[in-house]
Amino acid sequence: MTDINAFANAFAAVWNEPDAELRRAAVVRLWDEDAVEYTPENTYRGHDELEKRVAAAYEQFVAPGENVFAAADDVRGHHGALVFTTHLVPAGGGSPQWSGTIVLLLTPGGRIERDYQFPPA
Asked: Which of 55, 69, 94, 103 is 20 to 30 Å from the Cα of 39, by its Cα?
């Protein structure tokens, strides 16, 4: 498996990427072409839906300049699975405004096959 801390940080970084072309390239690099992301409300399949999902989250939470997404230092992994926390934090630093748990199942090649996002309880 790749460096799991670097992977978690790359995952968080894609949600902060302002450039649409770089954001698309990051989605392609991180998620398998047949990847599926599950949230409590929705399911996103494939690069096109994932790219739209990430872009919408960027526009809503990051583009206004007040917040950024960051991975916590709690990533754990084994047998092709990663679990970690992501936070939405003030851009200037401070306490998280939101936190969620991410569970990723990776392909043998190290890309995301399944992405489960759990909001705070």
From this structure: 94
